[in-house]
Structure formats: structure tokens, C-alpha cells
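HUMAN: Quick job: go over this next protein and say how the chain folds.
***
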Amino acid sequence: MSQQNQVLNKPTAAYWLSMIGGILGLLLAIIVTIGLGLLGFLTFSDAEYGFAGFYALGLIWVVFGVWMFVTSILIIVFARRLNANPMQHSKYGVYIIILSIIGGGLLGLIGGILALVYNPQFAGAAPQYAPPPQQQYQQQMAHNCPQCGNIVQPGVRFCPNCGRQQY
């Protein structure tokens, strides 16, 4: 096991949100590329927009869909790398945020932010907020009064029999 993987807590929320955002982006990219691109090619006639207009809208949707497809694939790749190498969470978090902004994925954006604020806990390291070590107090025991010999309970300042002040 490499040094990078020796953390107690993995960035699970960042990983899954980025993965789901990437998968949803892939599905949306397929719909945009095939559905709207084909619709753009088929719905506009030469008479209405001319030859350039016939392909322009369809081409715009296809290019936009391919762009979303590429950014979604990269979000998935960086989410997997984040899960495999949690110590590089800042680098992969920034990559996921940038790709989510330019590719339009809200879940990926949230996942990237969670990757940035992730705080790894190292295996074998002391806990971050360890409680102070327990101090052992000597338990007081009952004792005999030095004047009358009566048994005096712990914490009592005066002997109940003779009234002498205890130490």
C-alpha cells in the first residue's frame, strides 16, 4: 500500500457526487448530441434559413454535446483518481470544479468543492483532537482522628467526636 493511500477516511461524498455528476453529464451529452443535433439538422429547411442555417443549429448542438461528453468523461476520470489518491484531493478537486463549470454540472461542482475541503486523517497518526490524558487522583480514605482515635470520613474537616480540625 502506497503512502498516498494510507488515510483512515476517504473523500466518499466528493467521489460519489462527482461520479454521479459525470454520469448524468454523459447521459445529457448523448441526448444533446444525438437528439438535438439530429433535430437541428432535420427541422430547418433550406428555404427558411438557407444552406448554412440548415446545418448551423444542428452543428452547434453536436459540438456542444461532444464538449459535454468530453468534460463528463474527464470528471469521472478525476473522481476515480481522487478516490484512489486522496492525498492529492486539492489537485483533483480543482480539476473537477473547472470541468464542472465549463461542462455545466452542478453535482460535479459540489463534489469538487467537497474534495477541496476534505481533511485526510492519516493511518497511524494520533487523533487530531485527542482528549488530555486522564489524571489519576489518589482516592482519600477514612482515617483516625489524631486526638480521640475516632474514624473520620474523607473530606470532613472536623472530627465529629471531639471537634479537632483534621489535616
